[in-house]
Specification:
The chain is an alpha+beta fold. It is 12% helix and 22% strand. It binds zinc ion (ZN).
Length: 153
């Protein structure tokens, strides 16, 4: 009698949880990044090398790169120091828990457009596993107030 299944040599277990959705497996296979960064939100994460806390997220909704920044706000002078040292700078948007990053200066790339000065927006500097250039804590921005009036339609 021939067995239909060879039960002595079970199929090796996959690394993934079987409940992982197919789109997450496809996303991670194509990009090589974990799906936790999907959506463009910058999340707090310790650096894998120096264990310092960083904010990590994609820097654009499309054709994005992973941005890892120190969670400190830079002054215009500190941003200029980052430019001289060829360290990327980003503008931080949003409120705690919903931060987003957009690039201001990427070494070797010319970014079109003008950026408001660092005195008007929150500028953060890429993490380099060295003492951070910027030292001011991130501003505790409040979420925008809700609209409590009648519906605008
Ligand atoms: Zn580091």
């Amino acid at each position: 009698m021939t067995a239909l299944f060879d039960l002595d040599n079970p199929t090796p277990a996959t690394r993934r949880d079987p409940s992982t959705p197919a789109w997450v497996i496809a996303f991670e296979t194509r990009t090589g990044a974990t799906a936790t960064l999907a959506g463009g939100r910058a999340i707090p994460r310790p650096c894998s090398s120096c264990r310092a806390w960083t904010l990590t997220g994609y820097d654009a909704p499309l054709i994005a790169d992973t941005a890892t920044v120190d969670p400190y706000a830079a002054t215009p002078l500190q941003e200029a120091a980052a430019l001289i040292l060829a360290v990327a700078t980003y503008q931080l948007w949003g409120t705690p828990g919903r931060y987003h990053l957009t690039p201001r200066h990427l070494p070797g790339l010319r970014i079109l457009g003008h950026h408001p000065p660092a005195t008007h927006v929150t500028v953060v500097i890429a993490h380099t596993c060295r003492p951070p250039l910027a030292t001011q804590p991130l501003p505790a921005l409040r979420p925008s107030p809700r609209y409590d009036g009648p519906p605008p339609f």
